[in-house]
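Give me structure tokens for this 50-residue protein.
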Amino acid sequence: MSDSDKVWPTGLTQAESEEIHRNLIQGTQIFGMIAAFAHLLAYIYSPWLK
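Here you go.
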């Protein structure tokens, strides 16, 4: 019953886990860009460091 392609403990294959990892990294990068843009807009409208 044991499949040698599965990665323990998730039960995903190596390819599936790499795909999830790529999507996680891409989502984190998109979130970071949105957060940086939001901070830029907040600084423009209310400069807290001046």
